[in-house]
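Cont'd.
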Amino acid sequence: MSEELDLKMKKYLRGGAANLEVLQDKKLKGQLAHRENLYGKSAKAAAKFEKWLMPSEGGYLEAEGPVEKTWRFKQEDIGQAVDISSARNQYDVVLPELGPYTMDFSSSGQYMAVAGRKGHLAIVDMKNFEVRKEFQVRETVRDVVFLDHQLLFAAAQKKYTYIYSPEGIEIHCLKDHGTVLRLQYLKTHFILASVNKFGHLHYQDVSTGASKSYRTGLGRTDVMRVNTVNGVVALGHSGGTVTMWNPNSSAPLVKMLCHHGPVSALAFHPNGHLMATAGKEKRIKLWDLRKYEALQTLPGHANTLDFSQKGLLARGTCSFAEILSGAEHYSRYMNHSMVKGYQIKNLLFRPYEDVLGIGHSMGWSSILVPGSGEPNFDSWVANPFETRKQRREKEVHLLLDKLPPETIMLDPSKIGTVKPARNKEKPTKKEREAEMEAAIEDVKGSITLKNKTKGRNKPSKRAKKKQEIITKVKRPFLEQEMREPQLSRKKQKVCVEDELPKSLQRFTRKKAAT
Amino acid sequence: MKVKVISRSTDEFTRERSKDLQRVFRNYDPNLRPQEKAVEYVRALSAAKLDKIFARPFIGAMDGHIDAISCMAKNPNNLKGIFSGSMDGDIRLWDIASRRTVSQFLGHQGAVRGLTASTDGRVLVSCGTDCTVRLWNVPVATLKESYESSDNSVKPLEVYVWKNAFWAVDHQLDGGYFATAGAQVDIWNHNRSQPVRSFEWGTDTVISVRFNPGEPNLLATSASDRSITLYDLRMSSPTRKLIMQTKTNSICWNPMEPMNFTAANEDSNCYSYDARKLDEARMVHKDHVSAVMDIDYSPTGREFVTGSYDRTVRIFQFNGGHSREIYHTQRMQRVFCVKFSCDASYIISGSDDTNLRLWKAKASEQMGVLLPRERKKHDYHEAVKNRYKHLPEVKRILRHRHLPLPIYKAAALRRTMTEAARMKEERRKAHSAPGSISTRPLRKRRIITEVE
């Protein structure tokens, strides 16, 4: 019992305790020790109250016996074994004329924005499956994304990006973004990120309107994903590299070579340090973002990838969707083949539900994936049963807690920490030279030579005197230089001799015979 | 196969009737909340800004005196009242809530130098430069009577005339004696017209006296020979004397740690001492630019307020070297006395411009009854500010205070002077044999000697 409690407590402790032994200030040490004690107590209380606050365990799909395998179960079997209200979540919406469909869910899973390539835009209320508003924009729509603020959504259309209200009224036309291929939204920063056909990454603050654009220099790409934990945007390029960007720097934060061929899909695990990439050379790799190394390589194509809240990975190619699960080692969990001819455009897990939404060339579908959604939601974070008043309150609080773009960094836990005091490092050679130059300049300005008479004031003697003064100033710097490089020169000599092959060793400088 | 899918019924998660409260579900999992530290930082920044927006410490001034206010006394049995005495002999009892005079105690011929209330709060003791000690009956307000605006004059209960002018008076917190300071320290009983005992050490006038709140027989005095003396009533002679480089204007004992006291010194610093170990100050509180005239502790014992000759009132933490807050107004001239109210929420300052001013102890505090949600919010703001107060942006906002120009310049001048003295000392040390020059620590520097 207590081991379970310890495990749960670990989650709430958010990392290890601070090392208080190095502190010399007794008062501070006492205060921090008291605080650590309080953290322990609150983590323990949270772990204890879990059983009342979070009663539901979540969905599961288990195979009975050694012969049955979970990936052999079809959606029909699952639908029959499950209650009626959940079986309603399995459906196919067939709209063959309006092109491949993309979808996006709002953060609580209550609304879904759907965009067909031929210009069909719709908002669907997921509680009662009714279409709240649908309209035709008569242009190609490449991507749609929900801006959580006031239920607005952005659609990347033929030439520009437009922001629409839930009633279908066009609110903004964002011309600076250009012809956008993919859109992503950073919820806590209120930033809309887009990548256009020239490969330019554009960040736009939706609440203030400020924007920044960066040229990636790596060509046209439509693989873009945002890491919700730290807010960095990752782009997958046709050279097989994945670059990560933040709005503060014009160079990518990280550039990783992931695949031998172009990167076709990208997804981030909700914990922030697992990334799945798919390359066109039929490989899917799972990367650890703390050490930047590949944890696992799986064979297979993927046009689209998505992680669920509980860590299940869904991949979709042509008309086949596969779901992988496993804590450290991902393996097959479920399969779903659609009718041949349905090309899957994008896969998205619905938040707080065991549902996977599939957008394909003939409309959109939804299938049940037991164990993918988070069963216990927090009303202050995302409430699937939100009323209008609650939504408006939440928006005000979100705006008050809006994070500035400077907080987007690879390791967000560094915010609030103090830079460790560095011991004064030895000045580099350049710095030393610069100091010497500065000292010489100072002296040169203030040299005043005695005005000697009776023929003793010759120009050559004056010049010599000046040089003497300058060398006097230079002397301490040169002495310092002389003392240090002796060691490094000696080291170099030894290394060079070792490296040469035997046949060439006769040409090295021999040591003096002692 | 065993299968289960998340299915939530709307009934369980929404309210039944429109009269019910909305249902709230909690999951404290940190994985649901990305970027917690950044959100906390943003909240700390806005809490600091809100703090500054709502910082309105000045409540009001109580005017009525026609000469500078020399002393104040508070009555521990009555939160709403405060006594003040002025340089023309006028003593008034004020009602803090309405900021009006309740009653006037007329009688003193010269300046009133000391005021104190007795243990039960019924008797007010005052002393002045006219060599008299007067005892007054304090009018007690009943629930039916309200304080009328017309001043009621009260006749003195007793008038005791003695040999020398008095400088200060203080009453035992839990006993029948009170002590006056003048040429020597006299201990009086309410009923006797002559002091019961007299203490004397040296020939200089004693300018302030304070009884210890925890130990009723112990008292501390300061004299104009730059000394602080401790007396014990049970012994026949004074116990200990500490001589400093400059005169101490006022002393106050810490009500929560009665062995510690803080002395308000003429050299614009306050020194906290442990009465058991007087050879070293426990803390030096430096922030005023001119002589500190009066000091009073909050009943929590965690902070104290000082009033100084440089027209400002500052609040210090009991263990902090610098002030947490400074209050100033254009109209407030030299502050001669300050008092912390008995509920630790207000500060009353009496100054040269004949006004008593009422201030809030915490400048941005919301007064009145707070709803539990409001209180939680304030606590959260305090906690989040404390966590991030070391970061430069937050620190800049929290630290910012507008100072009057003369004080800003005087403080800058002091800084350059101390910096110059410190550099000179450092260079002397660097150019002399190691160990030949030793600096006395700051806590001992201003002490000359301790005498038994």
